[in-house]
Design goal:
Elements (H helix, E strand, L loop, with lengths): L14 H31 L12 H16 L5 H13 L7
Helix pairs in contact: 2-3
C-alpha cells in the first residue's frame, strides 16, 4: 500500500460549514446512547471474541490468552514483549528486557 504525503490546505470554515458541522455533532450526540446500547448488545452476543478493536476467532483468542498468561507469569509488560522474547529465543539472540 502506498502512502502519499499531501500538503493540507488549512482555512477557516464558512458560516454554512460551521452550521452543518454543528448540526451533525448534535445528531451524533442524540444517537450516541442508542449506538452504545447496540454495541453492548452486539458484544453480548459475541462473548467468544476478544474486544480489542479487532475481532478475533475462537482459535485466535486461545493464542492471545496464552500470550497474556505467559506475559503475566514472566513479568512482561505487553504482548509485544512476549513476541520479542520468543523471537530472541528462536534466533538465539540475548536481549535485555525493558
Amino acid at each position: 500500500m502506498t502512502h502519499e504525503i499531501r500538503r493540507r490546505i488549512l482555512r477557516a470554515a464558512t458560516p454554512e460549514e460551521k452550521e452543518r458541522h454543528r448540526t451533525i455533532r448534535e445528531e451524533i450526540q442524540q444517537e450516541l446512547p442508542e449506538l452504545k446500547q447496540w454495541a453492548r448488545e452486539t458484544a453480548a452476543r459475541h462473548q467468544e471474541r476478544v474486544a480489542v478493536g479487532t475481532v478475533f476467532t475462537d482459535q485466535e483468542t486461545v493464542v492471545l490468552e496464552a500470550i497474556d498468561d505467559y506475559a503475566t507469569k514472566h513479568s512482561l509488560t505487553s504482548r509485544g514483549a512476549v513476541v520479542r522474547e520468543a523471537l530472541a529465543h528462536l534466533l538465539g539472540i540475548d536481549i535485555t528486557r525493558q
